[in-house]
Amino acid sequence: MLGEILDVPHSHRIVLGFNIPEIDQLNVERLCMRLTKRPTSTSSYVQVTHDQIGKLPDEILCSIISLLTVREAATTSILSSRWRHLWKRTLNLNFDIRNKCGEFYPKSKFVGPDREQLSQEAMREFVLWVDQLLHLYHGSKIETFRVSHPLSKEYACQIDEWIQFAVNRKVQNIDLDLSNPYPFFAKYNLYSFPCQLFTEGRYSSLKHLSLTNCNLSMPLGYCEFKSLLSLTLNKINLLPESLQVLLSGCISLEWLSLGSCNCPSRLTIVSPYLKHLSTSSCPSLKEIEIFSINLISYELEDELLKLSLKHAPSKIVRFALLHIPINGLNYTLGGLASDHPHLESLVLCSHATMGENNLLPNQLPTFTKLKHLILSLMSLSAEPVSILEFTSLLEAAPFLQKFELQVDVYMNTTGDENFERKKSRRPHDHLKEVVISGFQCDAGQLWFAIYLLNNAISLEKMELISAMEIYETDGECTTYINNFKMPTKRIRKLLRKEAPSNCTAKILIRDGRYSI
User: Fold this and answer.
1) Do the beta carbons of residue 237 and residue 216 sit within 8 Å?
2) Are the C-beta atoms of residues 516 and 14 closer than 8 Å to each other?
3) Strand ranges for 77-229 from DSSP E
């Protein structure tokens, strides 16, 4: 199964983006430590003859080093005496397993009857490692502070000290992920985030806060995050009134994401600057009332969630609906087209279940403003699915410019005997870019690619990727690397043969061994 062999990096997270500049930049800042591309060395030996870079001011060198991981930054200390202590002033501190142990985590050490004891030992080693690095740190300012490792409440004092350490250095981005993604780790009690550090306006420079797998309760004093722009809560235990109190102190909030949280049944959000709202896997949450004049994007996992937009604009330009059955898309899209006629970006994550035939009708409501569509398909059935049926989605968006299709590699897709009839439908005049991931060269996928080459008359680029991409939430996607080797030359030759002679689209084909 995917992810079971942890010694090989099967998956990684990437940002797809919203195609909405005002929230794309906010998302990049929020995820900078998790998703920044970092250079990797191809040799363990570096010969330095003339250190021209070393002549730059310390501030510039520290900014450069901040782009590296902690392990990579520490290695710069051997370059020369000029570099010896610069890494201790990096602006970004990212503490996770890969920074501590490298690419390969020795899961074998946790096999045996003493798994709980070994898990506690791993936690102690990680805490000691972070303590040692913070003791060496010489910087006066921290931009991003990130901790990602399973940690229990037994280490609350140390974690509190780390956060206080970052707060004292005017940290702008805190990302605390104490979740347990490793099946070999024993269960542990949750840590409680120290909101008391932010009471009575003691600190107001924090811009981005992300918490995963911990408890959150508000102190008696009023908690203010006056400068907070984004708040992301995942797997958080909340008291019924805590979330409401927390949000009341975030007067500048532009981004709110709630995932797998035990929220109250009814939530009221008063935030004049809120631009993006996401809720997923919050079964207790039944109703959201929003007072915001700037909301332009929201994501829902449950289409039955009652959403009331008070003093909010009707110009919602981005919408994502996650984990809905394919046979419910027609009803869902009909409501979207009428309620949000200004949609420019749409994400649909859907699954096919047993016995679903005629997945979509030929006629769907028209989205006259839609420019970007992401369709993520999962299969819960062994029955074949004809993805050519989803061409009606493209026809419902006559001004679509970019289309991304994410196909479950385990989905059984078939060809279509009605392909010639489908080729004659009206062309997609404005479609310029197509990305198909989970591409396994089966008949259905090949016919779909051929259909697009024949009907997208302005197509500039088609990208076929064997790696399976799964849309998660908040513009993020998990890419699962597989070992499927695509016959690149044969596919390109077939597509060129079936494409019209005037087709000038660039066709990119990548197998599962590439890295984004």
Assistant:
1) yes
2) yes
3) 92-96, 144-148, 173-177, 208-216
Q: Given a cut of 90, is residue 462 above it in pLDDT?
A: yes
- The DSSP secondary-structure symbol of 198 reads G
The one-letter code for the residue type at 348 is L
Computed over every residue of the chain, the mean pLDDT equals 77
Q: Per-residue confidence at 333, pLDDT binned at 50, 70, 90?
A: confident
pLDDT in tens, 126-141: 999 999 989 988 888 8
- Kindly tell me the sign of the dihedral angle through the C-alpha atoms of 394, 397, 401, 406: negative
Token digits of residue 141: 């300012």
Q: Regarding predicted confidence, which is higher, 85 or 269? A: 269
For 90, counting Cβ atoms within 10 Å of its Cβ (0-12 exposed, 13-18 middle, 19+ buried), the class is: buried
Rg of the Cα trace of the chain? Answer: 25
Q: Which residue bears the tokens 């849309």?
A: 471
User: Comparing C-alpha atoms, which of 257, 233, 229 is closest to residue 322?
Assistant: 257
- Compare 20 and 457 and report the one with higher pLDDT: 457
Q: Do 241 and 214 contact (CB within 8 A), yes or no?
A: no
Please tell me the distance from the alpha carbon of residue 352 to that of residue 411, in angstroms, as a whole number. Answer: 9
Q: What is the DSSP letter of 212?
A: E
Instruction: Specify which residues 404 forms β-bridges with.
Output: 374, 435
Reference 490, options 451, 453, 435, 441; nearest CA is 441
Give, in degrees to the nearest 5, the angle at Cα 191 between 183 and 199.
150
- pLDDT at position 512, please? 57
Instruction: Spell out the residues 6+ positions from residue 37 whose beta carbon is closer than 8 angstroms to its own.
Output: none
Collapsed DSSP state (helix, strand, coil) of residue 468 = strand
User: Within 10 A of 305 (CB to CB), how many other CB atoms are there?
Assistant: 13
Under DSSP, is residue 304 helix (H, G, I), strand (E, B) or coil?
coil
- State pLDDT tens for residues 290-305: 888 888 998 887 655 6
Q: Please, what is the Cα angle at 491 between 485 and 496, to 5 degrees?
A: 160
Q: Is 407 exposed, middle or buried (0-12, 13-18, 19+ CB in 10 A)?
A: buried
- Residue 486 pLDDT class (50, 70, 90 cuts): confident
Please state, as a whole number, how many other Cβ atoms lie within 10 Å of the Cβ of residue 60. Answer: 10
Kindly state the tokens that stand for 154.
């037994």
Phi, psi of 296 (to 5 degrees): -125, -10
pTM of the model as a whole: 0.81
Q: Any long-range contacts for 278-282 (C-beta under 8 Å, 24+ apart)?
A: 278/320, 278/473, 278/474, 279/305, 280/322, 280/473, 282/258
Q: Are 428 and 455 in contact (CB under 8 A)?
A: yes
Q: How many Cβ atoms sit within 10 Å of the Cβ of residue 253? A: 25
DSSP assignment of 240-289, as one string? Answer: TTHHHHHHHT-TT--EEEEES----SEEEEE-TT--EEEEES-TT--EEE
Per-residue pLDDT, 14: 58
